[in-house]
Amino acid sequence: MSHIPSRFQPTRRAALAAVSGIAALGLLTACGYGSKSTSTSAAAPAGSAAASGSTAALSASTVRIGYFANLTHATPLIGVQDGLFAKALGSTKIQTQIFNAGPSEIEALNSGAIDIGWIGPSPAINGYVKSKGAALKIISGATSGGAELVVNPAKIKSVADLKGKKIATPQLGNTQDVALLNFLAGKGYKVDAKTGAGDVSVVRTDNSLTPTAYSAGQIDGAWVPEPTASKLVAEGAKVLVDEKSLWPDGKFVTTNVIVSQSFLKAHPDVVKAVLTASVDTNAWIAANPDQAKKDANAALLALTKKALKDKVLDTAWSELAVTNDPLASTLKEEAQHSVTAGFISQPDLSGIYDLTLLNEVLAAKGQPKVSAAGLGTE
Fold it and tell me: To which protein family does this belong (predicted)?
């Protein structure tokens, strides 16, 4: 990956070695919170500013970060692999865990297994509400878009044809699961949120298994994030609903960054360093979209031992956009989707955001402030 800017080159080789370690460790530790729950450690290499002592050590020796092997988590996929996170964190080591879907990641955050995570809005909302506002804070946006309902065109040609069909989602209560249930309810279909039984059968399936299930005829479609949606399209599926079409201006929060409130209180300097890495990574992705796409694919190869085909990668990448803005106004609407789906009662989301550190990072880089839409500090 020779096109990474030179200022990132010193950390890249060590980071690539660390990501390779993730894939190997995944074979040993896949029994954890997620279907691909893995961990590794990385620190700034010798010769970097942090290693040479020119950067003050942060308050935590290690930060544990969770994310998915999905393109909708492009920021940590690229930022960890390419060394931007190690650069920002200096001597603080990075431990990563890879998850299939958000509910498992919330469980890990609540248990103290991770400190910071990239995650969809629905699990973040559920985690906040169920803890009565004590478990987590949303501290940044990450991704908008990148989720579609794709179906077998021989069986489903319109929304009316969904009745009696089997549609997969990544996990009970995850963001795409809630989106599908809300969509079906809006079309008059009745489905039990917990069991998935009803007019349409909602089949919770690990993203890694969904393409095989589709090819085998075990499901008729899926509401899934990228790149899983584009993998199904490559298998002959068609996009019935692009979720962007359901939102004003096509923008909606797909991935947020969350933090354990206890970790935020104890180590705000570490959290700010992670946010600095996130903002820097998003800026690099925006400036280098073609190379970023290749680097994300390299990270997926290291994590899953299988790279995306060029056509799948190109299609999937075009469906999403990285963003520092948490798009807080759309979170309010996603919360109502969880209510409609039957996962939560009317929630009180006041205080769910703490964008103070993010806005400090953005201000230092001359970028505009982002809004919590009245749902927290900024």
Answer: Belongs to the CmpA/NrtA family.
